[in-house]
Structure formats: structure tokens, C-alpha cells
Amino acid sequence: DKGGFPHYMLKEIFDQPNCLRDCMRGRLFAEDDMGGNDAYDPSTGYADPNVHNDVVLSAVRNNRDRLLSASRFIIVACGTSWHAGLIGKQLIEHYCKIPVEVDYASEFRYRDPVIYPTDVVIAISQSGETADTLAAIKLAKEKGACIFGIVNAVGSSIARETDTGIYIHVGPEIGVASTKAFTGQLTCLILLALALGHTKGTIDEKEYVDMIHELNAIPAKIEEVLKHNEDIRLLARTYTYATNFLYLGRGWNYPVALEGALKLKEISYIHAEGYPAAEMKHGPIALVDNMMPCLFVATHHKGYEKIISNMQEVKARGGRIIAVVSANDDEVSKIADAVIEVPDTLAPLAPLLSVIPLQMLAYHIAVEKGLNVDMPRNLAKSVTVE
Ligand code: F6R
């Protein structure tokens, strides 16, 4: 049931606020200004009066020692899930001070990787059936690593192969292009990093509580971003001519740039490259001309000033610029041809907001081109071939 939307993809984009509420329910306990809990325990239907401003994950509680004694985390995934993994690395390193590697499952499994029994391998998968991810965790398990799953499909092959983990709980994703699973994966990774960092004592108490409050506010902020749908539809019309697109971001938003480019490629068949913005001058800038639009993810966080200079470099070469910016930004609009505003939030949560306009842009460009967005050519929802 498309719930009145023309495509599953658009429905799933719009479902994200409620999907993330489902994902956080019973895990995130944020005390509101009135002193009550916004999140509640689904087993009782009531807010748990004993839990205040906390993240509770049974997977962390029950495997505390194993997770905290890990010398290293290795994240394995494919496609969009791998992009979530890149943000997961930043989160776990920042909040837990544990080194994290991120690998394509297909590269990891065929490379003869070094795996220690003290490693924790995190598999991220929407379908839970991706053959390469499944093979990667089987290999890691044989070598004695602990396997932690972040999986959407309950009871799937990957979920069954893991030692512990957290379900994404965003409901079945039908559109081939992943949208709500990505923001759900990010939410799980944020919850994991917060719970683990708090247990370990590597996260400052104020930062912990601030993150809990901000995360709790994210679904409503996504609702704000979704209000730009019509503007983005109109913007999309301007770009159906493009045959190439560059997506650029830094820091927390660098993986968002990769994800935006992947969305555009897979459903609109426009070649798009995602790059960390600073890498542009090491090659891709040679491609920039007035036929290649550049999308900058330029929210008001660390690296903002630098990304403005990157934007100026593109502008000087005649490139067309679309930018995703934080609310009340008045710098970027002087340079960019079009800006899309997202509400302000804490830097580690920025991807949850900045990816939404990119999903909508890819969707509308594909629809304008008359393409089948729910079933793009050559792609399958579960990649069970190797
Ligand atoms: C992109 C997309 C794919 C999947 C990838 C992994 O929109 O859907 O790149 O992310 O095939 O799939 P899962 O997460 O099911 O393992």
C-alpha cells in the first residue's frame, strides 16, 4: 500500500519521521521540559519513570564486557549501508574512543583480512540477505570475532548469524532505492555509540544529555525538511538535462554526499560522483564546467568555511551550485544557484537531516525523466548473488 503516494520511494521518504520514532522507542529516553519522558517502553505502553535522559540497548547491556574489551570495531556492509557505516565509524571513534575500520563486505571477504578474536564486527544490512555481507560475517565468526548486527529484516540470514545486535525497526522497505533504512541505520549507530560511550565513560555527561534531546527532536525536524518537497520538485526540473553531477561534503556530511550521488545514479541514471569536498582539487575539479551541477552539503558545522571556498572554486569555473544549508544561512545563498535549508542540529546528527533533500532531489529528477523509481533497471532489492 503506497498510502496515497505515487511511489513507494516517496512514501518511504515521508515515513521517515515515524520510522525513526519507532526505531528509538524503548531505547531513547529523553526527559522533556515538563520532566516527563517523551519516549516510552513499548512493553508497558508507559514511559519508564525510572529512566531519565538515557539510551538503553539490551545488546549493549548484555554484552557490555565483550563490547568494551574490543580492541577494534570493523564495519562491513554494501551500498547505502556502507555509507551509514562511514558515519558509524565517526560516531564510535568520537564517543567510544575505539578504532573503527569500514570495509565493503565484498572486499573484506576476499582479501584475507586480519581478524582478531578481540574484534567486534558490525554488519549493517537492510535486507539481512546480502550475500557478501553474510559471507563476511561468517568469515569473521570463524576467526573468533564477535558479530554485531544492525539489520532491518527480522529473522533474516544475517540477523541469525550474528551474536547480538539491534534491529532497525523501520518496517519493510519496498522501494529499491534505500531511504528510511539509511536514516534508521544512522539512528541505530548513534544509539549504539551513545550507549557504549556512556557505559565506557568516554562521553561527557552534558554532551550525552544534549545528544539525547537533539536526537529526540530529529523526527520533528525531518518533518520540517519534508515541507520543501514542492520546492525540490520544481528545482529538479532544472536539472533533468544533466548527464553528470558532483556531490561534495566534508566531515559528517561526506558520507551524505556519497549517498546523495548513489541515489541519483540508481534511479535517475545520471552519472554522479560523491567526494569529500577537499579532494576536489586533487582531480575532479578538472571536470567542472557549466554543464556539471555540483551539490554541496554545507550545513553550519566544522569545515563550513572551507566548504565555502570549495564552492567559490566551482563557481569560478562556471559550475552550477545547489547547496543544502542550515537554517538562516546567509553566506551560501550569495554563491549558490539554489539552496535548500534544513533545521540546525548537533554536528553528528546533521546527516539525518541533510540526506533528506538529496533523497527528494533524486526522486523528483527521476520522476521528471519518466523513470520507474521503485524498480530501477538492473537493480534488485536484495543482492543475494555474489
Ligand atoms: C541503494 C541500495 C543498495 C543497498 C545494498 C545493501 O539504495 O539499496 O546499495 O544498500 O545493496 O543492501 P542491504 O542493506 O540489504 O544489505
UniProtKB/TrEMBL annotation:
Residues of the full protein shown: 251 to 636 of 636
Membrane-spanning segments: none
EC number: 2.6.1.16
Keywords, comma-separated and alphabetical: Aminotransferase, Cytoplasm, Glutamine amidotransferase, Repeat, Transferase
Compartment annotation: Cytoplasm
Catalytic site: 381 (for fru-6p isomerization activity)
Quaternary organization: Homodimer.
Molecular functions (GO terms): glutamine-fructose-6-phosphate transaminase (isomerizing) activity
Record protein name field: Glutamine--fructose-6-phosphate aminotransferase [isomerizing]
